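Figure 2 data, in text form.
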Amino acid sequence: MKEALDHLVEKLDGLAPTAALVLGSGLGGLVDQVKDARRISYAELPGFPRSGVSGHAGEVVAGHFAGTPVLMLSGRAHYYEHGNAAAMRPALE
């Protein structure tokens, strides 16, 4: 995950999020309200858990939401996809 984190920090270009949200079904539209959004596909982040669920974007969206610098995970890995209840744990740590 260190390589994924390094890539993410580079893509954030100095943005220092103070809040993070994991968006699932029904909340994906929140990313459209992020100002100055930077979008990074999970596929670009080595070792990052990916979701195969239709409708989950599978991307990190960072920027400003309601004036707060945020990082949003749009979509997540699920137990039924990987057989691993802790699939998202490395991404959240």
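Caption note: Residues 2-92 form one domain.
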